[in-house]
Description:
This protein has helices at about 30-40, 70-85, 125-135, 165-170, 175-185, 220-235, and strands spanning about 5-10, 15-20, 45-50, 55-60, 65, 90-95, 95-105, 110-115, 120, 150-155, 155-160, 195-200, 200-210, 215, 240-245, 255-260, 270, 275. The longest helix is centred in the first third of the chain and has 15 residues, at about 70-85. By secondary structure, the protein is of the alpha+beta class.
Amino acid sequence: MEILRYAAFTDRADGGNPAGVVLDADDLTPGQMQAIAADLGYAESAFVSRQGPGAATIRYFAPEAEIPFCGHATIATGVALAEREGPGTLVLSTPVGPLELATGTEAGRLVASLVTVEPWVDAIDAAVRARLLQRLRLAEEDLSADLPVMLSFAGNIHPIVPVRDTAVLRGLDYDYEGLKGLMAAEGWGATVAVVHRLGDHVFEARNPFPPGGVREDPATGSAAASLGAYLRARGEVAPPATLTVHQGVDVGRPSLITVGVPPAGGLTVSGGAVRISG
Length: 278
């Protein structure tokens, strides 16, 4: 068994979001997968079991828990497979349903793209919203006047919290234990997406991730997809559209996530990945 290390949504090893990737996980137990993920200490690690040509099963583990879906570890897996087997398309069986993972070459480098499961967007209960803002240490005046706080799902449930400007985003300093408890109570197993709109199709984001035992995620593909679903549901973008999400600057690992927003159905999350020596 080989444990690979990749940084996803970047073109450099010291950027993006690191992920562990095990391409031959057929004989590993869930406990062994969890132990490997904890030892690596990355936001998530992906474990692949092959089902035959063009098909595989994938599971995702954060340092403290199994996660239903992870965008950056899927992108890392796609690039790792393409480096060994060449570009192509693979159908992944995941805990949230089947995903299509495609790899190809753009500007001389490998890029992976995944199509999410069917998304949904919903309002957030007023009392839960108040507790969420309290745990994030955000006041009402810190929030965007145009974009409301809502829940969005494109593989994981992400609260989407738009803030009014870059200064609020840069100053984010949340209550780790308090947010972890709230997210556990609400069944939110991934990140909170705190975002600021830089342009019609450009956002910057920070993603606290206490359920996984990580203070802040450098690049969150599922949150970027959920943001795309949120914007589509609210009529904030005219599909087909392409979003760009900048993340990771605040933790020293700048990342770039591209999200394709079609008129309906799953969204396409794309990015590159770079092998990390380890």
